[in-house]
Design goal:
Bound molecules: protoporphyrin IX containing FE
CATH topology: Fumarate Reductase Cytochrome B subunit
Helix content: 55-70%
Strand order of the largest sheet: 1-2
Order of helices and strands: HHHHEEH
Number of helices: 5
Structural class: mainly alpha
Distance between the termini: 17 Å
Radius of gyration: 19 Å
C-alpha cells in the first residue's frame, strides 16, 4: 500500500507553505500596483523595496515548496472526480507553479536590466542576472505585468474550484488543505 492511500490530508509543511505563499502573493499584487502607480517620492522607493524583497522571499519559498512537494506523497483526489477535472487540476497547479516562479524571476530581470542597485530589506545586495539594457528591462516589465494578469485569472479559477469542491461537490478537497486536518475520506 502506498502512503498516499492512507493519507487523506496534505502534510503540514505543504499546507503551511501553501497559505504563507498565498498571503504573500496577495500582498505582492497590492504592493506591486501601489509601487508602480505611486508618485515619485521616498515612499515609492520604499514600496518598491518591500515589493522586491517579499518577491525574492516568495521565490525562495516556492523552490522549497516544490522540493518538499516532490519529495512527499500528495493525497489522492476523490475517486468520483471525472478525468477532465483531474487533468484540469493537474494543469492549473502546474501553471500556478510556473507563474509563481516566473513572477519573481522576471522581476529580478527588470531590476538587473534597469541597473538599479537594490538591497533585499535594505541589507542584502541582489546580484544582477543580466547586463544593463533599457529595452530588455521594458520587455521584462511587460512579461511581469502579463504574468500578473495570468496569475490573477488562474487564481479566480483556483479559488472558484476550491469553493465548488466544498459547497457543491461537498468533498474534502478544501478541508484537507486547511490547517486543522480531517480524517474523513
Ligand atoms: C511573487 C512575486 C511577484 C508578484 C506577484 C509581483 C507582482 C507585481 C505587480 C502586480 C506589479 C504591478 C503591475 C506592473 O506594473 O507590472 C509589479 C510591478 C513590478 N514588480 Fe513585481 N511581483 C513579484 C515579484 C517581483 C520581484 C522579485 C521584483 C524585483 C526583484 C519585482 C519588481 C517589480 C518592478 C520593478 C515592477 C514595476 C514594473 C514597471 O515599472 O512596469 N517584482 N509586480
Ligand atoms: C483563498 C485562496 C486559496 C484557496 C481557497 C486555495 C485552495 C487550495 C486547495 C483546496 C488546494 C488543494 C487541491 C488538491 O487537494 O488537489 C490547493 C492547492 C494548490 N494551491 Fe491553492 N488556494 C488558494 C490560494 C492559492 C494561491 C494564492 C496560490 C499561488 C499563487 C495557490 C497555489 C496552489 C497550488 C500550486 C496548489 C497545488 C498543490 C500541489 O499540488 O502542490 N493557491 N489550493
Amino acid at each position: 500500500m502506498k502512503a498516499s492511500d492512507i493519507e487523506p490530508s496534505w502534510n503540514g509543511v505543504v499546507k503551511f507553505l501553501h497559505w504563507l505563499v498565498a498571503l504573500l502573493i496577495f500582498t505582492q499584487f497590492a504592493l506591486g500596483w501601489l509601487a508602480a502607480t505611486w508618485r515619485l517620492s521616498p515612499t515609492k522607493l520604499d514600496l518598491f523595496v518591500w515589493h522586491k524583497s517579499i518577491g525574492m522571499v516568495v521565490l525562495a519559498l516556492v523552490v522549497l515548496r516544490l522540493v518538499w512537494r516532490l519529495a512527499t506523497p500528495a493525497p489522492p483526489l476523490p475517486a468520483a472526480m471525472p478525468a477532465w477535472e483531474r487533468a484540469a487540476a493537474r494543469t492549473s497547479h502546474l501553471l500556478l507553479y510556473v507563474v509563481m516562479l516566473g513572477m519573481p524571476l522576471t522581476g529580478w530581470v527588470i531590476n538587473s536590466a534597469s541597473g538599479v542597485p537594490f538591497k533585499i530589506f535594505w541589507r542584502v545586495p541582489l546580484p544582477s542576472i543580466t547586463a544593463v539594457d533599457k529595452h530588455a528591462a521594458e520587455v521584462a516589465a511587460l512579461v511581469h505585468f502579463s504574468l500578473g494578469v495570468l496569475l490573477a485569472l488562474l487564481l479566480l479559477v483556483h479559488i472558484g474550484a476550491a469553493l465548488r469542491h466544498h459547497f457543491i461537490r461537498r468533498d474534502n478537497v478544501l478541508i484537507r488543505m486547511l490547517p486543522a486536518r480531517t480524517l474523513s475520506k
